[in-house]
Write a structure and sequence with these properties.
heterodimer, A: about 425 residues, alpha+beta, Cytochrome-c3 Hydrogenase, chain B, four-stranded mixed β-sheet, 14 helices, globular, B: about 260 residues, alpha/beta, Rossmann fold, 2 domains
C-alpha cells in the first residue's frame, strides 16, 4: 500500500479558518473533508426575544465581508412575516447597495484572494511588487463598491442605514452624482478585469453540479426571485424548508445543506450565471462572450471570470439605478408588528443566503433560522476535492497542496459565515 | 542597505472578520502601509507567514474556546505591542450575549448534535486574558482610526482616539440632536466616539457600536430613554448588543433585567 501524508496547518486567503483532510489509499482518494473549526457564536439562539427590527443589525455581525447580504435577507424575511411590500425607489436602493457589496466582495476575492493562485504569489501585497498597476486597479475597483455602501449605508462594514421597511434616510439625487462618475471609471476597470482573468491558465476540468440560484423576472438576481435549479427545482423562498435539509457532521461547526432525496448542490456566481445569464446587461453579456464563456460554466477554476463579469454587471446596474432614481416620498414604509412567519433568500456574493423568522404578536422573534451560502456549498466543495485530487495524487506535495487549497478558494468560502481555520491534512494511507 | 521594517501580525479569534477586513479596506493606504511595515502574518490576505516575534500584533475577536484561551497567551509572548481591534476583542462582541444565558441551551437551539460543540460558557475580551497595550473600539473599527493607530505606532507616539462621547461628534458635525429634536432614543451620550456620529447623521439614534465612553452615566440616560417610551425590556436590550459585556453596559443592562 502506498503511504504518504501531507499537512498544511492553516489555509490562507479565505474569510475565516478551517482545515482540510484528504484520505487516499493506493492512489485513490477515499474521502475529502473540509473541516470548519470556527468557534460557534449562536446567532439563532440569541436572536430569540429580540425585536424584529433588531435582526438586520445583529445578523450583519455574522459576516464582516457580506453584511449587506445578511441585512437584506433579514429585512425581506421580516417584511414577508409582517405583510409589507417595499417597491419603487426603495427597492432600487436596496439593489444599489447590494451592487456595492458584490463589487467590493468579488473584487477582494478576485484580486487579493484568488488571482495570486493563478499568478504564483502568496498574496496581493506580494503580487504588487511585480504588478503594482494591476493591484492598484483592483483597489480602485473595490473602492467604488465601498463608496456605494458608504454613501447609502453610512459605512462600508456593518452599514447603519438599512431597516425593515426601507432606510433611515434616503439619499438625494444630487448625492448620487459623484458616485456615478466613480462608477463609470469602475465599469472600465471591471471590463479590464474580465479580460485579465480570462487570460489565466485554467485546469481543464468540469463538474456536473446541480446549480441553485434565485431567478428574477427579467433581472439578474440580488434581493428577490424564485429559487430555481438546473435540474428543474422552481420554488418560493417559503418552500425552502420542504426541499432542502441540513445535517450536522462531527468535523464541522457549520451545518451541511442538501436538496432532499438528492445530493450536493452549488450556489454562487457559477449557479447565478448558469440560471440567469440572459438577464445580464448587454455590456456584461458581451464581455462574457468575448472572454470565451458559454451559457454555462462548470469549471470552478473559471469562477474568477464569472465574478469579474458580475462585477461589471453590478457597475452597469448601479449606474442604471442612479440614472433612473427618483427620491422616494418617505425613506421607509410603516410597520405594524403582528404574529407570523417570514421567509427570504437573497444572493450574497458567494451564494444564496436563506433566513426564516417566526414572530410573536408583539414583534419579538420566537425562532430564527439562517442558512449561509458556505454551508450550502460545503458538500460540493468536498466533492470537488474528492474528484479533482484523484488526478493530482502523483504531483509533488507542494503542488498537490496548492491545488487543493485553490480548489477551496474557487468557491470563495466565507467560513466566518458558516464558521473558521483551514488545515490541509492529506493522508495517502497509513 | 536594506531597511529593516517592523513586523506586523494580524490574529483572528471569534469574530466576523470585519475588523481585519478594515485593513484591506484602506484602499488608498494599503500599499503604503505595506511599504513601511512587513506584513509577517495575515492569513486572510497572504499565505506567506513569517515566524515571530512580531513588533505589532493586531488582535481581532474574543475568546470563546479553551484552545483560544491558550492561543492568546502564545500571541502575547510573540508580540512586542498588542493592540485589540474592535468590539469582540475589546468587550467580547455580540457572542458575549451567551454570558447572560446558558450556553448549553444556546447550543441545543442551533445544533442538532450539541455534543459535537466545544465552547466556553462565556465570550471574553482579550484584556481579560493578557496585557493589552492599546484598544481600538468599534463594531467595526474605523479605517481612519486604524491608519492613525498604525501611524502612531510607527512614529512611537500614542494614537489620537478621543474617549469622549458621540454627542461631541454630533456637535462637531453640526447635527441636530435626534433625541431632543425628534424624540429618537439614542445611546450617543454614553457611547465612545470614533464613528463620526454616523447614525444621528442618518436620522437614527446611536446604538452603541463603539461601547461605553470614558465616564458614562448610563442610569441617567436610561431615565431619559424611559421618558421617551422605552420599557424595561427595551432598556435591557439596548445595552445588550456588540458591547454587552463592557462593564458600564453590562451593569446597566442588568439593572433592567428582571
Amino acid at each position: 500500500m502506498i503511504v504518504k501524508t501531507i499537512k498544511v496547518d492553516q489555509l490562507a486567503r479565505v474569510e475565516g479558518e478551517g482545515a482540510l483532510k484528504v484520505v487516499a489509499r493506493d492512489g485513490v482518494v477515499q474521502s475529502a473533508e473540509l473541516n470548519i473549526f470556527e468557534p460557534p457564536r449562536f446567532f439563532e439562539a440569541f436572536l430569540r426575544d429580540r425585536m424584529y427590527s433588531e435582526a438586520p443589525d445583529i445578523t450583519a455581525r455574522i459576516c464582516g465581508i457580506c453584511p449587506v447580504a445578511y441585512q437584506m435577507s433579514a429585512i425581506h424575511a421580516m417584511e414577508n412575516a409582517l405583510g409589507v411590500v417595499v417597491d419603487g425607489p426603495l427597492r432600487d436602493l436596496r439593489r444599489l447597495i447590494y451592487c456595492g457589496e458584490w463589487i467590493e466582495s468579488h473584487t477582494l476575492h478576485i484580486y487579493m484572494l484568488h488571482a495570486p493562485d493563478f499568478l504564483g504569489y502568496a498574496g496581493a501585497i506580494e503580487m504588487a511588487r511585480d504588478h503594482a498597476d494591476i493591484v492598484r486597479r483592483g483597489l480602485d475597483l473595490k473602492r467604488a463598491g465601498n463608496s456605494i455602501i458608504a454613501l447609502l449605508g453610512g459605512r462600508e462594514i456593518h452599514p447603519i442605514n438599512v431597516r425593515v421597511g426601507g432606510f433611515y434616510r434616503a439619499p438625494r439625487r444630487r448625492e448620487l452624482q459623484p458616485l456615478a462618475e466613480e462608477l463609470k471609471r469602475a465599469r472600465d476597470l471591471a471590463l479590464a478585469t474580465v479580460r485579465w482573468t480570462s487570460s489565466f491558465d485554467f485546469p481543464d476540468v468540469e463538474r456536473d453540479y446541480e446549480f441553485v440560484a434565485l431567478r428574477g423576472e427579467g433581472e439578474y438576481p440580488f434581493n428577490q426571485g424564485r429559487i430555481v435549479s438546473s435540474r428543474g427545482l422552481d420554488i418560493a423562498a417559503a418552500e425552502y424548508d420542504e426541499h432542502f435539509e441540513e445535517s450536522h457532521v462531527e468535523h464541522s461547526t457549520a451545518l451541511h445543506a442538501h436538496i432532499k432525496a438528492r445530493a450536493a448542490y452549488l450556489t454562487g456566481p457559477l449557479a447565478r450565471y448558469a440560471l440567469n445569464a440572459a438577464s445580464l446587461s448587454p455590456i456584461a453579456r458581451e464581455a462574457a462572450r468575448d472572454a470565451g464563456m458559454g451559457p454555462v460554466c462548470a469549471n470552478p477554476f473559471r469562477s474568477i471570470i464569472v465574478r469579474a463579469v458580475e462585477v461589471l454587471y453590478a457597475c452597469d446596474e448601479a449606474l442604471r439605478i442612479i440614472d433612473d432614481y427618483e427620491e422616494p416620498e418617505r425613506p421607509a414604509v410603516e410597520i405594524e408588528p403582528r404574529a407570523g412567519t417570514g421567509y427570504a433568500a437573497t444572493e450574497a456574493p458567494r451564494g444564496m443566503l436563506y433566513h426564516r423568522y417566526q414572530l410573536h404578536a408583539d414583534g419579538k422573534i420566537a425562532d430564527a433560522r439562517i442558512v449561509p451560502p458556505t454551508s450550502q456549498n460545503q458538500p460540493s466543495i468536498e466533492e470537488d476535492l474528492k474528484i479533482f485530487a484523484n488526478a493530482w495524487l502523483d504531483l509533488p506535495d507542494d503542488a498537490l497542496r496548492h491545488r487543493c487549497e485553490q480548489t477551496i478558494r474557487n468557491h470563495d468560502p466565507c467560513i466566518s459565515c458558516a464558521t473558521h481555520f483551514l488545515r490541509l491534512d492529506v493522508d495517502r494511507g497509513g | 542597505m536594506k531597511r529593516i521594517r517592523p513586523k506586523l501580525a494580524v490574529w483572528k479569534f471569534a469574530s466576523c472578520d470585519g475588523c481585519q477586513l478594515s485593513l484591506l479596506d484602506c484602499e488608498d493606504e494599503l500599499l503604503e502601509i505595506a511599504g513601511e511595515i512587513e506584513i509577517a502574518h495575515f492569513l486572510e490576505a497572504t499565505s506567506a507567514s513569517a515566524g515571530g516575534p512580531y513588533d505589532l500584533s493586531l488582535v481581532e475577536g474574543s475568546v470563546t474556546t479553551a484552545h483560544d484561551a491558550a492561543r492568546i497567551q502564545e500571541v502575547r509572548k510573540q508580540s512586542r505591542f498588542l493592540i485589540t481591534i474592535g468590539a469582540c476583542a475589546t468587550a467580547g462582541g455580540i457572542q458575549a450575549l451567551r454570558n447572560f444565558a446558558d450556553v448549553r441551551e444556546y447550543a441545543a437551539i442551533v445544533y442538532a448534535r450539541p455534543d459535537y460543540i466545544q465552547t466556553l460558557a462565556t465570550s471574553t475580551a482579550i484584556a481579560d486574558h493578557v496585557k493589552v497595550d492599546f484598544e481600538l473600539r468599534g463594531c467595526p473599527i474605523s479605517t481612519r482610526q486604524l491608519v492613525e493607530t498604525i501611524s502612531a505606532f510607527l512614529a512611537g507616539r500614542k494614537p489620537q482616539t478621543p474617549p469622549h462621547s458621540v454627542c461631541v461628534e454630533c456637535k462637531i458635525a453640526g447635527n441636530l440632536c435626534v433625541m431632543v429634536g425628534h424624540g429618537t432614543p439614542c445611546l450617543g451620550p454614553v457611547t465612545h466616539a470614533g464613528c463620526g456620529a454616523l447614525c444621528p447623521s442618518y436620522n437614527r439614534g446611536c446604538y452603541g457600536c463603539y461601547g461605553p465612553m470614558e465616564t458614562p452615566n448610563a442610569p441617567s440616560l436610561s431615565a431619559w430613554l424611559g421618558k421617551l417610551g422605552m420599557d424595561e425590556d427595551a432598556l435591557k436590550r439596548v445595552y445588550r448588543n456588540f458591547n454587552a459585556n463592557a462593564d458600564a453596559f453590562r451593569k446597566e443592562s442588568e439593572r433592567h433585567d428582571r
